[in-house]
């Protein structure tokens, strides 16, 4: 096989309950996660010695700090493989937005290299390797609708979430996940139960109940320094979203709606100059449907066929 092309899908946290800090430095979480059709494209091909990272985005590191590079190295180390790879990433998922863009690329890398290198590992084995790369990688490998527990590596699949669309608003502000968790640790201890209520609603097919259960333990921390978060939620709800919540450590904010038409209408209204002016930093707006998998193979090509695609740039 010459190369493999994969769609690496974003995730949204419909709930995120922080249960405490673990001895290993991570936090114990319980989170309802959902894959959406907003995706990066990852092209993986055989390369020379080592791992080469290329991207069309200047915000994507091209060194060993890139999660896709970490995933490739972790996979090679785990299997004793002494093979190289060229990993090309076309970014569409906003970077550092709480949508697991880097983790999605890492998951696609694990799945793609497993096939390209002929390793034959199971999804469970890849999840185990992915957990060492990043907390969101296990979910991005399995995708769909699921509850993540532990530090994110324990995945319980749920029935597919159907009949809903998302409007995702990403203000152009920088949020450090590490800083948000540190600030959260300084707050008085609180316990939320958003995930349990949201999960019950999914099993019951109760979309209104799900909308009411949306919640994120980190939202208050991020919103305290970034008032755009609360403003975006107000705008989404005022324009018909059933519920709204910040995803991950932010700054992406998700609005849950019933139909594609409603999502497109809200997106158009938020994107208008009058409303966008409410955000001093500006914002990007996406309309997304749910997806039943975190990674999808788009193309497989035998060696010697095809040319480099023009949008792959260093």
Task: Write the SSE topology.
Layout: E1 3-13, E2 15-21, E3 27-47, E4 51-55, H1 67-79, E5 84-90, H2 101-116, H3 123-133, H4 137-142, E6 145-150, E7 154-157, E8 165-171, H5 177-185, H6 194-204, H7 207-213, E9 215-216, H8 219-225, H9 228-238, E10 243-246, E11 253-257, H10 260-271, H11 273-276, E12 283-289, E13 295-301
Parallel strand pairs: 2-9, 4-5
Antiparallel strand pairs: 1-3, 1-13, 2-3, 3-5, 3-6, 6-7, 8-11, 8-12, 10-11
> Which architecture of the largest domain would the CATH scheme give at its second level?
2-Layer Sandwich
**Major sheet, described briefly?**
9 strands, mixed
Average pLDDT over all residues: 91
Please give the number of β-strands: 13
Based on CA atoms alone, the radius of gyration comes out at: 19 Å
CA distance, first residue to last residue = 24 Å
N-to-C series of helices and strands: EEEEHEHHHEEEHHHEHHEEHHEE
The overall number of domains is: 2
As a percent range, the share of helical residues equals 25-40%
CATH topology of the largest domain: Ribosomal Protein S5, domain 2
Supply the helix-strand structural class: alpha+beta
């Amino acid at each position: 096989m010459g190369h493999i092309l994969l769609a690496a899908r974003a995730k949204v946290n419909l709930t995120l309950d922080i249960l405490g800090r673990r001895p290993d430095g991570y936090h114990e979480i319980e989170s309802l996660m959902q894959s959406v059709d907003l995706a990066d494209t990852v092209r993986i091909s055989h390369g020379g010695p080592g791992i080469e990272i290329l991207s069309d985005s200047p915000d994507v590191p091209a060194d060993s700090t890139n999660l896709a590079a970490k995933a490739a190295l972790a996979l090679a180390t785990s299997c004793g493989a002494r093979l190289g790879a060229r990993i090309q990433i076309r970014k569409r998922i906003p970077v550092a937005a709480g949508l697991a863009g880097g983790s999605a690329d890492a998951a696609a890398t694990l799945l793609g290299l497993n096939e390209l290198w002929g390793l034959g590992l199971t999804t469970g084995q890849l999840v185990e390797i992915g957990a060492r790369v990043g907390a969101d990688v296990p979910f991005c490998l399995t995708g769909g609708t699921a509850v993540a527990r532990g530090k994110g590596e324990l995945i319980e699949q749920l029935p597919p979430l159907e009949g809903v669309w998302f409007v995702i608003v990403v203000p152009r502000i920088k949020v450090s996940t590490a800083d948000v968790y540190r600030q959260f640790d300084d707050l008085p201890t609180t316990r939320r139960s958003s995930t349990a209520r949201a999960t019950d609603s999914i099993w019951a097919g109760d979309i209104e109940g799900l909308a009411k259960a949306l919640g994120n333990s980190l939202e208050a921390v991020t919103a305290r320094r970034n008032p755009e978060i609360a403003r975006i939620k107000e705008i989404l709800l005022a324009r018909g979203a059933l519920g709204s919540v910040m995803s991950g450590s932010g700054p992406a904010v998700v609005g849950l709606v019933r139909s594609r038409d409603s999502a497109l209408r809200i997106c158009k209204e938020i994107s208008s100059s009058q409303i966008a002016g409410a955000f001093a930093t500006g914002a990007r707006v996406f309309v997304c449907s749910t997806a039943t998998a975190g990674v999808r193979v788009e193309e497989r090509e035998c060696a010697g066929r095809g040319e480099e695609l023009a949008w792959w740039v260093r």
